[in-house]
Amino acid sequence: MDIPLSSLIQLILLNDEEALRCRTLWSDSALEASRGACKRGLDLCAIMPALREESKRKFKEMDSVRLENQERTRAN
Prior knowledge:
This protein is mainly α. It has helices at 5-13, 18-21, 28-33, 44-75. The protein has one domain (5-75).
């Protein structure tokens, strides 16, 4: 984990995109530790897999745009 689970919770609550970039999101031990970890009642065991999917989607789109830009640069 690169950030503590409590920091990930704060990033989620702040709708901070860093939550999609952190390695903690992909940690199975963090997912297990998330059971009952949020005092605000967030169901992190449901939120973390959803964020993982959002991260995959978002960064796949970013990679696609980056590749398109590289191809345009090569064509010029």
